[in-house]
Write a structure and sequence with these properties.
The structure is a homodimer of 233-residue chains. Chain A is built from five helices and nine strands, in the order ββββαβαββαααββ. Chain A is of the alpha+beta class and 233 residues long. Chains A, B: It comes from Algoriphagus oliviformis. Chains A, B: It holds the Pfam family WHD_NrtR.
Chain lengths: 233, 233
């Protein structure tokens, strides 16, 4: 297997994406499992020498999820010296059946620029990268140990997402285009990690004048049918 | 003049600091003026190969301001391809009287990690770096044109500072240890770019239970003397 070539990419610089989805009442993120080692990591990548940073991150996401247009936000760049663990990267590369030169660029010290993405779980088609056996959804509340400082990166992403939730009204990006008020509340509860009062949540959301109301969602029990909403364009 | 050596620093990676101070009712930042060219830029620097990112930024600030312990926050990493302007950097280096090899590392594409700092204007001792004639305070409201995307970096820093102002209660870092309520209000007004109502500002600040009240500031007109406050530890 040919490894990525150093002449194509900016050395020392990676990005890692914390991709949030929402399913069955749970907030989840995407993790890759590396060949043979079983190690888990965030989906990430490198920036091409003639590529904008944000385009590189979008390209990485598109390759893993099939989606071209997702809500994406940069939140922090990680650059401590203890991220430098060449033996870990070497094991990953060797487990992929690659020949790894001593001075190979991927074994050097890397800074990682963290992005979080919010997308509709249902729309995703998952594809592993060349170093991975699989890519799958994991519940944020029950994450396993990840390589390097990736657990810390997830926590920082989650903290930023919580801080931005009200100000940027971004929770809806985790839902299909049309949703019920209960579904929207469940997304907010999953992100904030706490239960919200139904009446005050509903009153607040309606007072912001950001939702458009559509027909009811008929389920058979029509006397209980909730309205469907979408975000105003 | 010897230029920084590529073997000491991580290539392609810089940091830029937006250093906020408050003086005479105005919010200001520090800018460096490069030799001969007259070009203005944010104070910044590079990360040593064996140095944590945040320590590099602190080192840079300490060299320019003399301060070791300042409020510092990372806000964004800038990585568009249009930042790559080797002729600009070459002019700056040549104007410093340096010999600049064609493949010199500082002429390559750079990503810049933006930090903002909040400090007490009165405590600063300004020192230019080897490429600069001067370093000085400039009013944020009346900034001149800066090199590269540095005007954009300042705007993004200011936006983040505004968004963080209430949540993190950081405005006080721009004041001396003891200050009057009017001085605190003036800082908030300068950051937000708008006038605040005195009574509601005061009520809100006192209700947060973060301020400690000290003796009055005696100015001669003792019947009008305002109280001094400090932030609770």
């Amino acid at each position: 297997m040919p490894l990525p070539d150093s002449s194509q990419y900016i050395p020392h610089l990676a990005f890692d994406s914390v991709v949030f989805g929402f399913s069955k009442g749970k907030l989840k993120i995407l993790l890759m499992e590396y060949h043979a080692t079983g190690w888990l990591a965030l989906p990430g990548g490198f920036v091409k020498r003639d590529e904008d940073l944000e385009n590189a991150v979008k390209r990485g996401l598109q390759e893993r999820t099939g989606l071209e247009d997702v809500y994406l936000e940069q939140f922090h760049t990680f650059g401590t010296i203890d991220r430098f663990q060449p033996e870990v990267m070497k094991s990953i590369l060797l487990a992929s059946g690659a020949e790894v030169p001593e001075d190979y660029w991927m074994l050097d010290r890397f800074f990682s620029i963290g992005y979080y993405a919010l997308l509709d779980h249902e729309k995703v088609t998952l594809t592993p990268d060349i170093l991975s056996d699989s890519i799958a959804w994991y519940e944020v509340d029950q994450l396993p140990d990840l390589i390097f400082d990736h657990n810390k990166i997830v926590q920082k992403a989650l903290q930023t997402l919580r801080e931005n939730l009200d100000r940027k009204l971004i929770g809806g990006n985790l839902l299909p285009e049309r949703f019920t008020m209960n579904e929207l509340q469940a997304v907010y509860e999953a992100i904030l990690g706490e239960k919200l009062r139904r009446t005050s949540f509903q009153r607040k959301m309606l007072s912001l004048d950001i939702l458009e109301r559509h027909e009811k969602l008929f389920t058979g029990k029509s006397h209980k049918a909730p309205y469907l909403y979408s975000f105003k364009p």
